[in-house]
Write a structure and sequence with these properties.
single chain, about 950 residues, alpha+beta, Calcium-transporting ATPase, cytoplasmic transduction domain A, Calcium-transporting ATPase, transmembrane domain, 5 domains, about 50% helix, elongated
Length: about 950
């Protein structure tokens, strides 16, 4: 639990206002019920406690953020290499390195400013004005001037301006999905006093800052303002959590340090060996430098430039650029799969994810309450269709039927459409199909859609049976009633047309409470007395639907001879005929069940986290195949009884969490991370922001998500779909695999280059490559081919293997073997080619160096083709199936041809034109590394198959 800012004065009031009566709260807040604070007292409290607004903690300045990006060994090494290149006149190399470093630094600054944007989005939830009672008079004041003890009036359409204990509630319902994850508006009741430990989503006597009043009206005592509200706690959590480096950032930083130190050491050794080679040790120890400078066979400047050039070539300064480009192109591919990345390293982090903590509403489910089952006339039926689309069919025992042919069912659907304030609207076109949206309460919307699927069009019904009176829903009666004048009897069932009544009443509400107002029931097309047996039949049907975690409403009616006088609800809601039950749920997305199984095969654990009830979470988890045979479901109160360590110990056993609060979500993420998991957390509400930030990768909803969640998250789902997360993880794995491929390629090639120079000097041979050849080699082989490897489509079984271990380095054991094999074979082949060149062109060192230069470049270009997969052979992948690799290697080959065969470049690069006989002799040498790579992959595949067979 995070503590409030220590500079803030202690707040007034009860620590758990939902667990105290209104009178107790008023006494503790020192305010008068119905008269409120005096203006003088309100001003004094405002001065003492501060305005009702979110406070931003001091942030690091832009310059400090920028300088912090250079605190990296590889970046420092690159800057040194750039300075040396500049001193040696290699201006283009120096400028390229500087550009790479500055670009990466600017990207880092942009990324680190995300928390500030998240807070700015959170501050948008602030309400500009509030209706308050002070000195016994009602008036409007700026919401930032609210203080604890103020009395605030709430009406439908208002945003709640502060946390408050409700004093009055009249049919009050508040949408709290952005704070609690509850998928339907919460009915409030100011009269109840609740248990102190009750979860946030069940505090029916409280209202919270930033939530929306959707129905009714109320009055409340302000108990918390600004940073002392639930949203304030979230804002504080967002600001106090520090960003953690991603696995890729950690591993590349470690790799950079290792490569940098090794390269500097080897190049230093090469320089020392070059200075003292062929110098007698006695002379070297006494006057080695003088003897060296006197030696006609030595060129100190040339040797120094060779060592520096080799260092520049060996350090993969292109690595940050290729990684950045690879991640950026991966982001573009993810957009096509409905994923928008806000942070480049998040692409790779996805690939290492081991757990997906998924919000239920809108991600695993459609976020569209839908009637899926019903009971009417003694018949249990199901309704097909998707979300708010008014197209679907009715089924009984798997067989379709027309509900309009059943009098009781038709009446029930008429009631569902007419005793209803929601309306269905066309929202647009998507892929040639009409899309729909619901205006109003989601539960009422589900009933309206069910009626529309039976062909009952709302506008036509309202014209035929206009509403003339209504008794609104309230939390005590849990019913709603509407009275309609019968202007066009033809919309009624045939059995009602013989002697139609001028008026009729429809009632909907909680099944048991509607049933108690009924005297008769419609069964098999007939109206019968509702005796005890038939009452039990209705309740049993409701119980069966409740076990499926459905939200159930009952519908009843009666015809009227005259317009009733509304003296009380009892006058309307009496002597009713029970028509039936409608069971609804926010159904799972059709593609989610398959995506859960794909994730499971890929070694990914999916955990549902929701603010809904445990029964609802269980039902959805079973439907999508998320709940394992021994999987557990924990609730928020159960989490409160567990220590952090105890939760971490059972974290792997839990498949779903229900009735959770914002602090619970953070606790869950921390427990999973404690078990070594890389956690991807999804969410759409304000309540999700701290957990999104705390997770290794935060995933926000693009459609239903709040600005707060989107600004906090690393990535945004543009279709709010869990299946898109799995697709993004697949892309992330491909991208990380591609990064490994070009790192493997760069390291193996660079090690080979170092060893060629190093062993040549140890063997007393002339330098096999000039400094400019080393730099040109670096340009030709480290650029385009490495980038092409970053564009590979990935191995076909990328989602059939478990996530890589979080502690596994980029260069793992198998890759280290590959680097060793490549370095030995490539070095041997190139040195043999160099020695052949010395014999072929005696006395012409430039010709021998050209042979070495061409052999090394061709070896690395062909090696790039074999690096396209770590396990699959080149022929299984298709030798020339990657057009990017073809373009890259062709362009690099042409650059090689230019410096060999363009005459005026020969003196610059110390090259000479080679004939076809030379190329023919060189061919086995530059093919050797590729053949060795394929043999190594074959041996590794055999070993992997043997290990699997032994399991």
């Amino acid at each position: 639990m995070l503590n409030e800012n220590a500079t803030q004065p202690a707040p007034l009031g009860h620590p758990a206002p939902h667990a105290a009566s209104v009178e107790e709260i008023a006494d503790q807040l020192d305010t008068r019920l119905h008269r409120g604070l005096t203006g003088q007292e309100a001003r004094a409290r405002l001065a003492r406690f501060g305005p009702n607004e979110l406070v931003e903690l001091p942030k690091a300045g832009w310059v400090r953020l920028l300088l912090g990006q250079f605190n990296n060994f590889l970046v420092i090494l690159l800057l040194v290499a750039a300075v040396v290149s500049l001193l040696l006149g290699e201006v283009l190399d120096a400028l390229a390195i500087f550009a790479i470093v500055i670009l990466n630094a600017l990207l880092g600054v942009v990324q680190e400013s995300r928390a500030e944007r998240a807070l700015a989005a959170l501050q948008k939830l602030a309400v500009p004005n509030a209706q308050v009672i002070r000195d016994g008079r009602q008036g409007a004041i700026p919401a930032r001037e609210l203080v604890s003890g103020d009395i605030v009036l709430l009406e439908a359409g208002n945003y709640v301006p502060a946390d408050m204990r409700l004093m009055e509630s009249v049919n009050l319902r508040i949408e709290e999905a952005s704070l609690t994850g509850e998928s339907v508006a919460v009915a409030k009741d100011a009269r109840v006093v609740l248990d102190r430990e009750i979860p946030l989503g069940d505090r029916r006597n409280s209202a919270f800052m930033g939530t929306l009043v959707s129905y009714g009206r109320g009055m409340g005592l302000v108990t918390g303002t600004g940073m002392r509200t639930q949203i304030g706690l979230i804002a504080q959590m967002i600001q106090t959590y520090e960003e953690e480096p991603t696995p890729l950032q950690i591993k590349l930083d470690e790799l950079g340090k290792t490569l940098g130190m090794a390269t500097l050491a080897i190049c230093g050794i090469i320089l020392v060996i070059g200075i003292f080679r062929d110098t007698p040790w006695s002379v070297a120890l006494t006057q080695g430098a003088y003897a060296y400078l006197r030696s006609a066979e030595r060129d100190l400047v040339n040797l120094f430039m060779t060592a520096v050039s080799l260092a520049i070539a060996a350090v993969p300064e292109g690595l940050p650029a290729v990684v950045t480009i690879c991640l950026a192109l991966g982001m573009q591919r993810m957009v096509r799969r409905h994923v928008l990345l806000r942070k480049l390293p998040a692409v790779e982090t996805l690939g290492s994810a081991t757990v997906i903590c998924s919000d239920k509403t809108g991600t695993l489910t459609q976020n569209e309450m839908t009637v899926v089952k019903g009971w009417a006339g003694g018949r249990t039926f199901e309704i097909s269709g998707r979300g708010y689309d008014p197209h679907g069919s009715f089924f009984e025992a798997g067989h379709p039927f027309d509900p309009r042919q059943d009098e009781g069912m038709l009446l029930m659907l008429l009631g569902a459409q007419l005793c209803n304030d929601a309306r269905l609207e066309r929202s647009g076109e998507e892929q040639g199909q009409t899309t729909w949206r619901m205006v109003g309460d989601p539960t009422e919307g589900a009933m309206a859609v069910a009626a529309a699927k039976a062909g009952l069009e709302r506008g036509e019904l309202q014209r035929a049976l206009p509403r003339v009176l209504e008794v609104p829903f309230d939390s005590e009666r849990k019913r709603m009633a509407t009275v309609h004048e019968v202007l066009s009897p033809r919309v009624l069932p045939p059995g009602q047309l013989a002697d139609p009544m001028p008026y009729l009443v429809f009632v909907k509400g909680a099944p048991g409470l509607v049933l108690e107002r009924c005297e008769r029931v419609c069964l098999e097309g007939e109206t019968r007395v509702l005796d005890a047996a038939k009452r039990e039949e209705v309740l049993a049907a409701a119980d069966r639907m409740a076990r499926d975690a459905l939200r159930i409403l009952g519908v009843a009616w009666r015809p009227l001879n005259a317009m009733p006088s509304l003296t009380s609800a009892d006058e309307v809601e009496k002597d009713l005929v029970f028509l039936g039950l409608l069971g609804m749920i926010d159904p799972p997305r059709a593609e989610v069940a398959q995506a859960v199984q794909v994730a499971r095969k890929a070694g990914l654990k999916t955990v549902m986290i929701t603010g809904d009830a445990k029964e609802t979470a269980l039902a959805v988890a079973r439907q999508i195949g998320l709940l394992r045979p021994k999987g557990r479901v924990l609730t928020g109160p159960e989490l409160d009884g567990l220590s952090d360590q105890a939760l971490a110990e059972i974290a792997n056993e839990v498949d779903a969490f229900a009735r959770v609060s914002p602090m619970h979500k953070v606790k869950i993420v921390d427990a999973l991370k404690e078990r070594g998991h890389v956690v991807a957390m999804t969410g759409d509400g304000v309540n999700d922001a701290p957990a999104l930030q705390r997770a290794n990768i935060g995933i926000a909803m693009g459609i239903t998500g709040t600005d707060v969640s989107r600004e906090t998250a690393d990535m945004v789902l543009t279709d709010d779909n869990y299946a898109s997360i799995v697709a993004a993880i697949e892309e992330g794995r491909i991208i990380y695999s591609n990064i490994r491929k070009f790192v493997f390629y760069l390291i193996s090639c660079n090690v080979g280059e170092i060893l060629v120079v190093f062993l040549s000097m140890l063997a007393g041979l002339p330098l096999p490559l000039t400094p400019i050849q080393l730099l040109w080699l670096n340009l030709v082989t480290d650029g385009a081919p490495a980038l092409a490897l970053g564009l590979e489509k990935g191995d076909p079984d990328v989602m059939k293997v478990p996530p890589r271990p979080t502690q596994e380095p980029v260069i793992n054991g198998e890759m280290q073997v590959g680097v060793l094999v490549q370095a030995v074979v490539m070095t041997s082949a190139v040195l043999l080619a160099f020695m052949w060149g010395l014999r072929r062109f005696p006395g012409d060192l430039a010709a021998a160096q050209t042979v070495t230069f061409a052999t090394l470049i061709m070896s690395e270009l062909l090696r790039a083709y074999t690096a396209r997969s770590e396990r699959y052979s080149l022929f299984a992948m298709g030798p020339f199936s990657s057009r990017w690799m073809n373009y890259a290697c062709l362009s690099s080959f042409l650059l090689l041809m230019v410096v060999i065969y363009v005459p005026f470049l020969d003196p610059i690069f110390s090259t000479m034109a080679l004939g076809w006989r030379e190329w023919l002799v060189m061919a086995p040498f530059f093919l050797a590394a590729s053949v060795a790579a394929e043999i190594t992959k074959f041996v590794l595949r055999r070993r992997a198959a043997a290990r699997l067979a032994a399991i």
